[in-house]
Amino acid sequence: MFKNFLQISNTLLGAHFRQHSTIFALSSGQGKCGVAVIRVSGSCTELALKCVTGMSRMPPPRTAILRSIKHPVSQETLDKGLVLWFPAPRSFTGEDCCELHVHGGIAVVNSILDALASVPKLQLAEPGEFTRRAFYNGKLDLTEVEGLADLLQAETEIQRKQAFLQTQGALSKLYNKWKDNLVKSVAHIEAHIDFEETETIEEGVLDEVIVKVEELSKEIQQHLEDGRKGELLRTGVKTVILGEPNAGKSSLFNLLCQRPAAIVTPIEGTTRDILEVTLNIGGYPLVLTDTAGLRSKTDDVIEKEGISRAMQTYKDAELILLVVDSQKYVQWVHCSSSRNVVDYLKHYIKNLGLNNLVCEENQDFDNIFTKNCIVVFNKLDLVKEQLNVEHHCQIIQLSCKHEEGVVNLVDSITNKLKFLCGEPSAEHPSMNQMRHRQHLIKCLEYLNSFLTTSTSDTVLMAEYLRKALRQLGQLVGTITTEKLLDVIFKDFCIGK
Questions:
Q1: Chain centroid to CA 278
Q2: Which element (helix H / strand E) includes 36?
Q3: Nearest CA among 251, 232, 236, 300 for reference residue 272
Q4: Sign of CA dihedral 243, 246, 247, 249
Q5: How confident is the model over 219-233, as pLDDT tens digits?
Q6: b/e map of 19-33 (b: 16 or more CB within 10 Å)?
Q7: How far, rounded to the nearest angstrom, does the alpha carbon of residue 251 sit from its chain's CA centroid?
């Protein structure tokens, strides 16, 4: 036990030491670039800036000045660049900070980092340490920190918009509003407990708290029922291409990727394994997966495994691109008594083994699918007659060979992505982390427990509200642990 205590003590002391030390790092991208930004933060920033610039006094705050950057030991001039001084608390971290904007050559950057390392009490920053200090000093809450991490990772325009809104407090404003309302409710019910036997408190206080909690419970419930829009936008919409062998799935995959990512041959069963790529479609992230052709009978062990993997990918997908061979549809129309495309699709899907993809009793095309689905009638170049499916907006006629119908397909996919991910807005922010959802679900459970508890047991009611408040505190970071912070900051880069 004593050994564990020492380990914990050393960890806390180490965290405390780093928090009060002065750190530096390259804050712009790695590699050659026109301009590199080197950031310093901490109580010894002023000393560091004077050591590498030779200035006797600090420049005006937030004003760029041109200075020679020198090594403190050798006094060799390393480069000329812009120097900016950000005294506490008006800086990114809330501490004294400075930035050196220098030429972005690798040798230049390394020489200046070496110069800073020679200054007493300075040490190289760890990944995410600048942002962690901003959190500790109240410049950012946890949701804003997560938004900043997402902003650095954003690959599409809509991802950038959602992340930027989060860094600006779109989510934290909502969650803090709920937290403040709950604080008032806790205070009122505790006052009711303390003074219920006297006449020093107004009547109806408990009833008012119950009404407020009911309103909060409804708001949180509506927030949770968002279809995971923010999470899908953050991670990408899982989209799988399905169809029978040789329907043109890999050709469609390559067409959307704009490169030969998958092998295409006239031989059935060419694709065996799962191929996955992330695409930017209309500003939305699409995680596109090519799969093995689906059929009920095959003696090939490897193809069987490919089909099994395809079925598993289908179960996890949020969007299906169902590829149909137009030639086979035309043959079916000629041979079948029915010319209804819905009947054909049900027949086709049944043969693929995707029985749970359609509602058998529904003949309305727009409502036959149990998942979001776009039907792609491929190989249009091999069909000499009209398919008579133009009136169905979710059917795209395509020729991968001639790239005919690609614009319509991209537009259809974009519309589906808009529906699934929504449009980020400051007025209606969407949660985009599983952590948020878990805290809000627990908070809602405690609120519902409060509402179902007898009003005669006000002590228990108050305890449920305190537990609900703790969940909101953990959500925004007013109540947190180092372990949670380590998880959040693990993907940050050095210099941020």
A1: 14
A2: strand 33-41
A3: 300
A4: positive
A5: 999 999 988 999 999
A6: eebbbbbbbbeeeee
A7: 30
Do the Cβ atoms of 374 and 322 come closer than 8 Å?
Answer: yes
- Specify the pLDDT at position 454: 85
Query: Taking a C-beta distance cutoff of 8 angstroms, is the pair 173, 472 a contact?
Result: no
Report the distance separating Cα 383 and Cα 71, nearest Å: 74
| Strand-strand pairing, 97-104 and 122-124 | unpaired
Nearest Cα to Cα of residue 164 among 152, 176, 175: 152
Integer CA distances (angstroms), 360 to 342, 353, 444, in order = 10, 14, 37
Q: What is the pLDDT of residue 187?
A: 86
Positions of E strands within 72-162: 77-86, 97-104, 122-124
Q: Decide if 46 contacts 77 (C-beta within 8 A).
A: no
**How far apart are alpha carbons 364 and 390 in whole angstroms?**
15
Model pLDDT, residue 9: 40
Question: How large is the C-alpha radius of gyration of the chain?
Answer: 30
Question: Identity (one letter) of the amino acid at 461?
Answer: M
Residue 317 Cα distances to 287, 305, 310, 320, 392, angstroms: 9, 18, 10, 7, 23
Euclidean distance between CA atoms 228 and 233, whole angstroms: 9
- Per DSSP, the three-state class of 110 is helix
The full set of domains in the chain, from first to last, is 2-140 (3.30.1360.120), 143-226+431-477 (1.20.120.430), 238-421 (3.40.50.300)
